[in-house]
Amino acid sequence: xxxxxxxxxxxxxSIAVVGASxxxxxxxxxxxxxxxxxxxxxxxxxxxxxAAEIEGRAAYASLRExxxxxxxxxxxxxxxxxxxxxxxxxxAGVRNIVVFSAGYAETGPxxxxxxxxxxxxxxxxxxxxLGPNCLxxxxxxxxxxxxxxxxxxxxxARPGKVGIVSQSGAFGAYAYGMARERDVGLSMWITTGNxxxxxxxxxxxxxxxxxxxxxxxxxxxxxxxxxxxxxxxDLARAAGxxxxxxxxxxxxxxxxxxxxxxxxxxxxxxxxxxxxxxxxAWRARTIEEFxxxxxxxxxxxxxxxxxxxxxxxxxxxGVMMADDAADAGLDVPELPSSAQQSIRARVPLAAxxxxxxxxxxxxxxxxxxxxxxxxxxxxxxxxxxxxxxxAFGSTxxxxxxxxxxxxxxxxxxxxxVVIFSAQVPAEQHRAIEASGCLCFADPARAIRVMAAxxxxxxxxxxxxxxxxxANASTADSVAFHAGPYNEAEAMEVLREAGIPVLxxxxxxxxxxxxxxxxxxxxxxxxxxxxxxxxxxxxxxGVALNxxxxxxxxxxxxxVVSAAVDAAPDARIxxxxxxxxxxxxxxxxxxxxRDPVLGVVVMLGSGGVNVELLGDVALRLAPVDHRQAREMIxxxxxxxxxxxxxxxxxxxxxxxxxxxxxxSRFALSAGDSLESVELNPFVVRAEGQGAVALDAVLxxxxxxxxxxxxxxxxxxTLPLFEMARMRASNTARKHPTQGYAGDSPASRMRWxxxxxxxxxxxxxxxxxxxTPNNDTLFTNAWLDLSAGPLVLDVPEMGRRYWVLGFLDxxxxxxxxxxRRTTGGDAQRLFIHGPDxxxxxxADMHRISAPCNDVWVIGRILVDATAEDLAKVHALQDRFAIxxxxxxxxxxxxxxxxxxxDTGVPQAAEYQRVLRTMLARNxxxxxxxxxxxxxxxxxxxxxxxxxxxxxxxxxxxxxGGWTTAVNVRTTFGDDYLTRARVARNWIGTLGxxxxxxxxxxxxxxxxxxxGARRYVLRFAPDNALQVGAxxxxxxxxxxxxxxxxxxxGRHSIGDRTQxxxxxxxxxxxxxxxxxxxxxxxxxxxxxxxxGFYLTLRLYQPQRAHLEGTFAYPPVRRVD
Length: 1117
What we know:
ATP binding; alpha/beta; six-stranded antiparallel β-sheet; Rossmann fold; DUF1214_C_sf; 30 helices; seven-stranded mixed β-sheet; single chain; acetate-CoA ligase (ADP-forming) activity; nucleotide-binding; metal ion binding
């Protein structure tokens, strides 16, 4: 999953340069010089132990010596010194690092291991990394030049609307120079290099919400995270920001070269082509087209519609333009008769259908140009107008007319694109573009730009109408048996998955084959049945048009003998007998798992056409019905399905259904599927359906080695724990509707309703681990599969409150509350990934990434009867209903009927996940899923124990560590996500609440009630929060509150009776026995392990940036 949260990285308020130098010939000198010369407004800290100052800025021996917050550190040092510099950065609380250093994954296995170790250490410390082996980035709008590229020294590109991200530094530098020469205004320029952390997808996602960026250009050599790239492109499309892509590696040689260049996986180019088309990115084939399209979009924007008008002063060029437009698939409609008449009234000899040819008359009467243009943009309603002026456009008089005409047309026809084609000087180009129009010397380039604009219009329209199917429902999880499948077995698996297959009978002998043929009815087909023979026709293993029993016996002998002769080692399972199917249109359906992009679904024309003509259409799964019909329409042989030359119409709806079902089947198979092919797949006459006549199913054995199974458990554990949580805190019985199931013991529960805790959590509460002791909870489990819901929130005033929205994978992706939406009464409109529509203007929109959502609310309360009553009254006013005002109450099978929190049984784990994965598909393919059953139980036991028992080291010093460093998503940090789900499920992101943990003391020893500890906050080191803070103690063994003599489970800034130290500081005694009067006592369990959680609600900058010094947990016995 991608991260959009790169603000402090790409817009840093302070920058340190490690390896800074006063020698201008060294790389370390360049970023300091650029930042100073080009007016960076933030703090600059050169890091060089042998220099007093560099470029007029004081130099420091280390990052730690700076002693102030550092948003970004640039490593301009050799790779050999990068690890020590990273340790320095961690100690200094640096948040982000750009690594120029080469010598990592691009050099081979040893470099790859070093890069992985560097990235893992940075990730564990919460540090984001750009690179290594990159040229850095430039935030042009903010004068941030975090790069050493010499292209900057030769001149700056002007600020503008276009953002560029490139995996290749060399191409990135070339693109920057090209942008400068073509006067393309830039907002952002980023090179990602080896992408140990931040990838192109992250940058696209960030630019999708960057107000300075309106058009995104991306250069790709490969991709490791296809799901992340898809998500980023969807974000850009939803934001209305076109993405123009150059993806190299279209040939096998190009792919190998690209992989060796930046250590990126190239993937299948046809699959990338499908990805770009599916997710709204235009793939440019040349560098010229790359810049033409992006710059044109930045200058003119998208037209209001995709109808194109062609206006020319040359009939011959008009024909060429029309041919190019037809090849590009543009809509060049004939002008309405009224528009044609108005043009002919001024130019009697004009050709007025479209293209419109004004002939040479325009040279003597240039005003007719405006007459025709207004008729085409007005009466004809064209969204784009291409005006070819030939040599006439180069004259001074015509250049004046172009400028005024362009300005007037853009003013009078907003939302229309006007393009002139003429050979004009650079000054004229700039003047035309200043009015929002475009100019190209070659009209063919303009045609390609208009084709791109049509693509973006269509993509946006389809997305708005249908939404994205990226999380569409899948079939139940499929479990394959070990080893290959023969045709009969493959057809049965597909039939069970809802894919239509031709009924057939297996026969193990000659007599059985004859009997099967007679039972089916002649004529029949007979095929060899062997899991070792994929292409049966190639070995003579197919007999067709068998008309009687004698032919059936002979056919059996013939196909078996041919198979044995051709493949003597093949296992022969008999023959398969099926009826002969006459008529219909043959196609090929298939799906395969691309290692980078996931499941690729293929539709091809039947017979030799698929190979001879390359007649295929591809999409990445999941595929919905709209996309399935698009695939059908893209085939060159599509007319055969639509009654070509008097043939009956084919059942296109049945074909689309089969494509969608195959997509679901392939997704549900997980990593176990290699490929599946239905060939031929016959589409019968309309209303008669479609059916697979043959199938090949290639699978991989489930992961069985403990490391792979552990990886699968770590990746899926949060989903299982969310199922547990839903089962434990949803209601079996409704006050008026009764039980959700047919008995109190049913697993059915009520959802789409709020439930509330009415008292602060105590040791008796065991449903939620690591619960807070400061707020009442207001929770709701939502099922969005039936459509959007509206959540009513009463006026909360100044009281702290928050509703955190968690997806089924525990990502806290959205919030409503005092920090984000305020304290006024409000309505929240929440919808799932498959819904598209208009949200009422008076509601806050919350777009859920999946249909299962946990809303976990917290409302601050004082532990008094009066304040509890006030909060109860507020809780009672929370409500959920459908947009039309009808009740939203619904039932759901929670899959579990117990409240266990220990190690689950392997069978239960797999059963629950089959359904949870179907309802909430992962953002990317799960590693090692599904695992083999045999080792799963032991791995579950090991992982659950490890996540609960292993004490975390003191990352922040003094015993403290950051338990969670998530904002809206855990991304690919599966281990942290699993640890949070096991121990602190329901955790919010750090901007809402930070959770600082102490499982060890200042000496690194595990905390235990057998010892005494003191925690002292100095008077000048108070915690900095916008709401409140508290420290809560939990027993290590079960992560629950501990009963104690005074009933105190937490201490915070709201605790009554706290005593300050004489100097104004605050000391807290943490021990099992009473420390005596006048002490602030937080009781610990006698002789048992425990841990502390410091909660900071609405933490301020020092905490978010990691610069706050937390007091040590000191032993005092």
